[in-house]
């Protein structure tokens, strides 16, 4: 382990915070660590690389450890002295096993509460592989005896950034979703909920389904983007096979491309259209609208 990592570990051992954040450098983790820092809450972040460690360590109140979900020894070290943990892994074909590894180590470490980032409509019998794996991990957490809180967000508004190139270059984006409505949620609101349930009492045993304040079709999403960007953006519905080929063509591995097609089949059946009160119930604030997102992120699409 390099000097930076050793220094971070030594700092963590000297002044142990109560909260561990995994997935600290992704879209949600970045917002969550920033929110905790701004609230003056000390936390430990588990990251994979020294470069990530240096980035997170710049936040006030942050302690950083290097850890790997495939290495139980590093997980155990990251959990040392921790009372509450936020569980989030990168999307990969190993995610279920990695999260189960974390749950087992957390149980051994005597963790009091685990806050898991799950997914809207997680269920063991779902036809969507991502929803099945989240349900498996949720059940393992229930059976562990640890206190838990589950966050089940719908499709991220920031997921639209994945279409950034075609929006910029063609004024179009594509998906196999038809005219189904989806109650998309802003990752900033997911992070706000995460911070609240990690810091404040009263959230043990709760399952928060997190959505935005309205359910939109992709045509309506394109219309909102058009207003925010000041130019015409068009949504083009495509068959699932065409979307699958496009994902493969830009480098998505088979497991992820297939999983995303399952996700979009789920969306296309209007199974992700309900507007839920989870954000307001947890934080006391209404979630951001897609109009808010489009305005705030307009520079990313220009």
From TrEMBL:
NmrA-like domain mapped to chain residues: 18-293
InterPro entries hit by this protein: Ergot_Alk_Oxidoreductase (IPR051604), NAD(P)-bd_dom_sf (IPR036291), NmrA-like (IPR008030)
Domain of life according to the entry: Bacteria
Pfam families cross-referenced by the UniProt entry: NmrA (PF05368)
PANTHER family: PRESTALK A DIFFERENTIATION PROTEIN A, PTHR43162
Record-given protein name: SDR family NAD(P)-dependent oxidoreductase
Species, as recorded: Spirosoma telluris
